[in-house]
Task: inverse folding
């Protein structure tokens, strides 16, 4: 069987994959349809981290319809509070308020979801079930290219296994070897480690990111070819910014340095406690 049932995969949970996976957080995602946002640049996707003041991240995604956007609010704390109030803060009080001076929300188009964030599944095979797509990643961020790639490669591997009469792990060894290389190539902790959401205040984030010589492109999809340039830009920016921060704000420098070197499960220990991982599933 090939299982591709998404980031909250029931197949992965029932097969016991989640028992030993590192659990980081239960993420709440609220998306509001907004018109009239005036962005400072024609970027398709703007991603801003708001820090511990509001415990959330928000994204602005352009829609195919002219002058329409999705305002996406995300928090690693499922009981974060009143989302309408947080939306109003972004649009009326935050440093980004000028973008929303002529904006209007279509309340009939609001959507939401909840997902659990685990580390990736490094060996996605058990009991003759092969997991692919978002089911093997840490969030719904493997993207369409990744979904197509894992789907095509897994189907090809299973077809060969059937033709050769090896309906077992040996038959799909080529796929498992490929996926192992992928997980070694892409450091899944980077977006979570560099978000600073769990350690810096909104003021500290604004100060720190304001020192970067250029804007770092938003990136979430694992197989996005910009992965390498984004990581390079971030590393180059850190090399220039950290000495300035060390001189101007040594306490903040120490906080960031510790954050970048701390194991990912320790960083998100509090969000893991606040979350509710799918530890068991009853099937009728």
Result:
């Amino acid at each position: 069987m090939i299982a591709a049932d998404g980031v909250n995969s029931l197949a992965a949970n029932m097969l016991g994959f989640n028992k030993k996976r590192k659990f980081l957080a239960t993420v709440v995602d609220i998306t509001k349809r907004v018109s009239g946002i005036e962005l400072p640049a024609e970027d398709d996707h703007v991603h801003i981290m708001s820090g511990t003041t509001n415990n959330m991240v928000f994204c602005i995604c352009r829609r195919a319809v002219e002058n329409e956007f999705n305002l996406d609010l995300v928090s690693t704390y499922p009981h974060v509070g009143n989302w309408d109030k947080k939306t109003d803060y972004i649009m009326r009080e935050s440093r980004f308020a000028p973008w929303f001076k002529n904006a209007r929300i279509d309340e009939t188009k609001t959507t939401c979801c909840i997902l659990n964030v685990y580390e990736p599944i490094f060996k996605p095979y058990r009991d003759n079930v092969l997991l692919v797509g978002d089911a093997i990643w840490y969030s719904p961020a493997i993207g369409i290219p990744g979904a197509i790639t894992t789907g095509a490669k897994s189907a090809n591997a299973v077809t060969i296994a059937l033709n050769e009469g090896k309906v077992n792990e040996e038959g799909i060894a080529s796929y498992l070897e490929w996926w192992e290389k992928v997980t070694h190539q892409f450091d899944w902790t980077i977006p979570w480690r560099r978000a600073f959401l769990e350690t810096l205040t909104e003021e500290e984030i604004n100060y720190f990111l304001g020192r970067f010589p250029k804007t770092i492109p938003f990136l979430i999809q694992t197989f996005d070819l910009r992965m390498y340039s984004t990581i390079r830009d971030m590393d180059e920016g850190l090399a220039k910014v950290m000495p300035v921060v060390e001189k101007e704000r040594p306490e903040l420098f120490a906080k960031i340095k510790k954050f970048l070197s701390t194991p990912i499960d320790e960083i998100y220990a509090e969000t893991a406690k606040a979350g509710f991982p799918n530890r068991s599933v009853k099937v009728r």
